[in-house]
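The material for today's practical consists of a large collection of protein records. Read left to right, the backbone structure tokens trace the chain's path through space. An example says more than a description, so a record of this kind follows:
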Amino acid sequence: MTFTVASYNIHKCAGLDRRVDLDRIAQVLEEIDADLVGLQEVFRPQALELAERLGLQVAMGPTRERDGLPYGNAVLTRLAIRGSRTFDLSQPDREPRGGIRLDLEMPRSEGLLHVFNVHFGLKIRERAEQVRMLVREHILHDELTGPRIVVGDLNEWFPGAVGRTLRRELSGPRIRRTHPAPLPIFPLDRIYWDRGLGADGFRVHRSRLARVASDHLPVVARLRLHSAPA
């Protein structure tokens, strides 16, 4: 089984021209054509409309209310959702941060796939504690039975504790620059996957539309589930 995973901070659907345009975000997602997409900085109504337009299922993981609406992270997926759980990663006196975990059913009765979509904070120590919480309390949770994938805007501007900590448990590609979208300098957006998964490719989606639809570019991985031995 092979499938495509993406992570995209859509910046509330506000493009570099400061115009809020959900159509552009939907078109970028159509260009990627992923089976599983982690979105950050998204309002619940935006996530629901994107899912409807793309014919995908959706799970929302709000971290707070903004402008009177649930706001935070969401996952769009073609795979059947068997469970979802939001979790808090907020640190004292910092902006609320968190994540969402989905348990997805893989085809042909191959078990569950566990996907974590997160958005970390802006301070180095804040992120270091958030990644420790993510690994200790969620990624290494006893109830997880299948392979794990972590996607998100990790806000790690330069190599640091976040990447090192996640690579102790998961595999990941060489980081790629995704922000700011027109001329990326910083590798903020990442995908990491369990060692039980193979990788057939990893890239930054750099279409003309993606360069203006948000201040981040999406990252895309093509992953492969190794068949269990007979």
Observations:
- The longest strand covers residues 57-66.
- Residues 124-139 form the longest helix (16 residues).
